[in-house]
Amino acid sequence: MTNFVDRVVLHVEAGKGGHGVASVHREKFKPLGGPDGGNGGNGGDVVLVVDTQSTTLLDYHRSPHRRAKNGAPGAGDEKDGAAGEDLVLPVPEGTVVKTRAGDVLADLVGEGTRYVAAQGGRGGLGNRALASQRRKAPGFALLGEPGESAEIVLELKSLADVALVGFPSAGKSSLVSVLSAARPKIADYPFTTLVPNLGVVTAGSMRYTIADVPGLIPGASEGKGLGLEFLRHVERCSVLVHVVDCATLEPDRDPMSDLDLIEAELAAYVGDDALGGIPLSERTRVVVLNKADVPEAHELAEMVTPMLQERGLEVFTVSAVAHTGLKELSFALARHVQRARADIEREVVPQRVVLRPKGVDDSGFVVRRERTSDGEVFRVIGERPTRWVRQTDFSNEEAVGYLADRLSRAGVEDQLVKAGAVAGSTVLIGPEDDAVVFDWEPTLVGGAELLGGRGTDARLDPSDRRTNAERREEFHARKDAQSAAREELAAERRAGHWTDED
């Protein structure tokens, strides 16, 4: 079994956020110490990082499920939970991150380049953080959010400047071994090369990389043989070298037909447009007529060279065994690579910072009226309402009331009314596959001034003190009662009710 793997399906899951805690400070002689519940810690992220010491995706092929650490819950005495540790996954340079549908998410090039594949969940707030002037003693806390989960595809694409293309056993591995210090496996049977072999070539002051990749057969662009493995690794190469076997003994094989078949496969292959590369059929081409140490092969090379030059192709006749024609080939490839690098530098456009401020009327959510098999429903779609619902402990009535207040302040109820919702309507908040279902009851406004706010404590906020107007009214009423009592006593004295019979 080979130790080289260049494509894996990876299942990643970020850590969950820790729950907040509802706690009351307890201390001798302080029965009402106030809320002191701490916040939960954030869950860890799953991060892909380019590591130049990594050359294969074999570890992820063997263990495709990876999960980051969860955040710790909060505690009393204002203690916040610890954040979950990020899961850092090293990947080789040139790794492309895709969805299962083939959409490119990231192109990881350059030592230390990072990509967050799954974001950790937020930690829930404790009741200390939820306390306010209106809510001095909240008896609830928010739950931690679940971390993101994703199924991504990692594809490794070689970062060579030059790619050697050709039929199996055309001598590509031998050519790499004599041009560079690479030592690929060489044998006299087809498909000896099963994995890309990279080598560094020095031509004067110019250094460039050259790749020997699995051989190509007709139908490779459709996945036959090792075609897709081959074509994936030449997408980044700026120069393509056709290595043609002039000493083949197979029937119906000659240099011109071999070249035409390979050109057809290059034209049929569809690469990733998101990577910014030009089609393979438009790359710089060089033809190498190999195995010229065989007399018949040398004669055939001299015969087809003018025909290839008529097509505008640069042709070299070489022998990897006899080491002939290699110096001219290496310097010619260096010239093409230098030109390609200069073109890339000219095409580089400085990245612009684009600011897209939110509109003043952007509520951050939408209410959509839908018809389902169970009847009419109203779906609330938005990041904030979904997050609020996930953080709510529905076993706590005060927490449910806090959620209702948040949704009302955000304008969700107003939008539901505009969409046609009435009391008892079914309201769904969250994604379609994991939504929370409510039987909507509109918030009543009339009489609300007689009720205390949620999370208030009458012992902490006494309201039985009399106003100055009430004191004045009570004083005058007492004076009036005293005056009336005196007049009544005086009237009884004048009438003789207090006179003794003796």
Automatic annotation (TrEMBL):
Residues 61-85, 451-502 are annotated as: Disordered. Residues 160-338 form the OBG-type G domain. It is an enzyme of class 3 (hydrolase). Residues 2-159 form the Obg domain. One of its GO terms (molecular function) is GTP binding. One of its GO terms (biological process) is ribosome biogenesis. Residues 456-502 have a biased composition (Basic and acidic residues). Its cofactor is Mg(2+). GO terms for cellular component: cytoplasm. GTP binds at residues 166-173, 191-195, 212-215, 290-293, 319-321. It is found in: Cytoplasm. Monomer. This is GTPase Obg.
